[in-house]
C-alpha cells in the first residue's frame, strides 16, 4: 500500500483525538481477593506428563490452542512465533477461532472431556463459564512470585476477566467500539464529523450523506448490530444513575429506558440509512468492510481491533469517530479479547507457560508493531495510532446486561435487533422474552 497506507494511518491519527472524552473505566467484578496459595498454583500435568512438557516416552506434549482470531492481524505472527519458540517442549496445535459459533465450540469441547487447553473468549463474556465451574482460576499463577506476572499486565484489561475477586482470563487486547468513516467522501460532500456528537447530530449527518452522496450512511455487521442500542443504554442509564444496576441485571428489562434505546436503533433502519437495507441484519464483517472500501458506505461501526482489516486495501483516507452519545456522557461498550483455560483442560501448566509467553515483552512488541496497544505494561510504542488507541480504554464500561448469561448474549446478538427492526416480533413480546432470561439468570 505504500504512501497511501501511510496517509490512511496519518488521517486516523489526526482524527482519533475525538475518541477521547468522558467515561468510566473498565468495570471490575466485585468480590474478595482469592488466596494466592491455592493448590492450583504448581500443578504437574496428569497422565504421566511432567511439568517440563515431555511425556515419559520422550514425546513432546501436544497442547491444543483455540486461539487464532484473524480479525486481529497480529495474532497469526504472534502464535506462530510462540509455536516455534516452545517447539522443544510442546507440539502446539493452533486452531482458528470461529467467532460466530464460539460458545458452541467451547461448550462442546468442555462437555466432551477433551477441550482445547486454551480458548479465545472475551473476558466480559466469561461469567457463565465461571458460574458453571468450567473456567480455571488463574489467580494463583498471576499472583505468584509477588505478583510478577500480574504486575506486568495492563490491570484494567486483566480486571475485565475478574469475578468475585478471582482472575479467570489473560487479556489478548483491549476492545473498544468506534466508527470508521470515509474522510474523502465526506470532505467532498462538505460534511464534517464533530469531535463529540449526540444522537441527533449523528442522524442529521446520516441525512446529509443520504442527500449529498450515493453511499449508504451507515453499516455494521450482523454480529454487532446491537452496538447502537447497547451504547445508548450505557449513556442513558449513566444519566439516570442506574448503569451499574443494569449491568448487574437488577433492573427489569421492561423498563422504558431500554425501549427508548431500541426505538432509536429502529429509526436508523426505518429511514433507510442502514446498509444494505433488506440484508442489513445479516451482513458479515467482511461484507461490510468490502462495501466500505467500494464507497458504498460512508460510516461503519466496529471495534478498534479490526483497524488493520479496515485500512488494508483502502484507497481513501479513513477517519475514526466516537460513538454518538444518547445521554450527557459518551460511555462506550468494550472490554478485552482474552484467553481462558477450561477447568478440565488436559495440560493446564503447559497452557500457563504458553500464555506467559504470549504476554511476554517479545510477543507484545509484535502486537504493538501491528498497530495494537500492548497488554504488557513494559512494552511501549512510538506509533501515535497505538498510543491513541491505548487511551480509549478510559471511556469503556465492561459490565452490561447482555453478559449475565450465554442465553441473554445470544438474544441480544441474534434476535433482539433483527426481529424488532424487521418487525418479526413486536417490542413488547421481545422485552418480555428478555425479562424471562434476566430472571432466569438472576435465579441461578
TrEMBL record:
Basic and acidic residues: bias regions: 46-56
Keyword Methyltransferase found: no
GO cellular component terms given for this protein: cell envelope
Taxonomy, superkingdom: Bacteria
Skewed-composition ranges (Low complexity): 27-45
One Pfam family in the UniProt entry: SBP_bac_1
Alphabetic keyword roster: Signal, Transport
Subcellular location(s) per record: Cell envelope
Region of interest (Disordered), ranges: 24-56
Ribonucleoprotein is among the record's keywords: no
SUPFAM superfamilies for the chain: Periplasmic binding protein-like II
InterPro entries found in the cross-reference section: Bact_solute-bd_prot1, SBP
Signal peptide residues on this chain, from the entry's feature table: 1-20
Family, similarity comment: Belongs to the bacterial solute-binding protein 1 family.
Protein name stated in the entry: Extracellular solute-binding protein
Organism: Diplocloster agilis
Amino acid at each position: 500500500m505504500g504512501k497511501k497506507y501511510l496517509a490512511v494511518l496519518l488521517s486516523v491519527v489526526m482524527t482519533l483525538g475525538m475518541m477521547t472524552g468522558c467515561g468510566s473505566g473498565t468495570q471490575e467484578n466485585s468480590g474478595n481477593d482469592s488466596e494466592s496459595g491455592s493448590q492450583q498454583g504448581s500443578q504437574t500435568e496428569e497422565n504421566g506428563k511432567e511439568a517440563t512438557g515431555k511425556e515419559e516416552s520422550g514425546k513432546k506434549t501436544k497442547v491444543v490452542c483455540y486461539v487464532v482470531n484473524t480479525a486481529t492481524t497480529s495474532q497469526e505472527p504472534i502464535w506462530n512465533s510462540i509455536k516455534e519458540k516452545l517447539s522443544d517442549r510442546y507440539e502446539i496445535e493452533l486452531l482458528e477461532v470461529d467467532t460466530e459459533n464460539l460458545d458452541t465450540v467451547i461448550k462442546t469441547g468442555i462437555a466432551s472431556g477433551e477441550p482445547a487447553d486454551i480458548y479465545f473468549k472475551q473476558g466480559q463474556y466469561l461469567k457463565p463459564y465461571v458460574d458453571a465451574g468450567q473456567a480455571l482460576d488463574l489467580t494463583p499463577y498471576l499472583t505468584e512470585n509477588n505478583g510478577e506476572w500480574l504486575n506486568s499486565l495492563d490491570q484494567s484489561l486483566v480486571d475485565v476477566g475478574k469475578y468475585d475477586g478471582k482472575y479467570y482470563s489473560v487479556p489478548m487486547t483491549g476492545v473498544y467500539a468506534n466508527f470508521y468513516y470515509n474522510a474523502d467522501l465526506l470532505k467532498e460532500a462538505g460534511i464534517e464529523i464533530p469531535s463529540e456528537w449526540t444522537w441527533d447530530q449523528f442522524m442529521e449527518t446520516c441525512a446529509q450523506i443520504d442527500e449529498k452522496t450515493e453511499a449508504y450512511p451507515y453499516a455494521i455487521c450482523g454480529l454487532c448490530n446491537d452496538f447502537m442500542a447497547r451504547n445508548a443504554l450505557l449513556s442513558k442509564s449513566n444519566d439516570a444513575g442506574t448503569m451499574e444496576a443494569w449491568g448487574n441485571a437488577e433492573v427489569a428489562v421492561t423498563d422504558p429506558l431500554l425501549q427508548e434505546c431500541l426505538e432509536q436503533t429502529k429509526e436508523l433502519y426505518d429511514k433507510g440509512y442502514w446498509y444494505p437495507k433488506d440484508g442489513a441484519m445479516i451482513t458479515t464483517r467482511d461484507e461490510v468492510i468490502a462495501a466500505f472500501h467500494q464507497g458504498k458506505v460512508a460510516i461503519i461501526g466496529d471495534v478498534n481491533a479490526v483497524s488493520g482489516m479496515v485500512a488494508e486495501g483502502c484507497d481513501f483516507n479513513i477517519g475514526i469517530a466516537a460513538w454518538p452519545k444518547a445521554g450527557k456522557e459518551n460511555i462506550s461498550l468494550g472490554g478485552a479479547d482474552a484467553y481462558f483455560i477450561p477447568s478440565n483442560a488436559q495440560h493446564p501448566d503447559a497452557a500457563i507457560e504458553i500464555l506467559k509467553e504470549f504476554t511476554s515483552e517479545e510477543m507484545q512488541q509484535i502486537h504493538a508493531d501491528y498497530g495494537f496497544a500492548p497488554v504488557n505494561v513494559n512494552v511501549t510504542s512510538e506509533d501515535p495510532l497505538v498510543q491513541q488507541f491505548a487511551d480509549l480504554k478510559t471511556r469503556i464500561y465492561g459490565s452490561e446486561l447482555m453478559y449475565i448469561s450465554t442465553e441473554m448474549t445470544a438474544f441480544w446478538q441474534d434476535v433482539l435487533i433483527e426481529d424488532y427492526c424487521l418487525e418479526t416480533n413486536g417490542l413488547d413480546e421481545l422485552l418480555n422474552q428478555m425479562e424471562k432470561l434476566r430472571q432466569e439468570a438472576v435465579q441461578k
